[in-house]
Amino acid sequence: MKKFSFLLMGAFVIAVASAFTATKPVIQTTAYGYTGTEWKQVNVEDVNVTYKCNAGSSYCLYQDPSFANPLPGQTPNKVFVSLR
Hints:
two-stranded antiparallel ribbon, 24% helix, rod-shaped, two-stranded antiparallel sheet, 4 strands, alpha+beta
């Protein structure tokens, strides 16, 4: 009976651990770029299709249409260019 309890407990621990390690992180796919006159909503994966990030002096993409929240993982030396 003790052996079965340890086996059951081991299976439970493995199930809990895999539940936390098997989940995919949430990645933001919608972002905003400023053209100089207006904000454009773009899909982050459409780089070089609907927009591109050229060398510049600010961030290329933002989490919302304001300059307060740049998209994480960017360097502040780009500029947004709309291709559409």
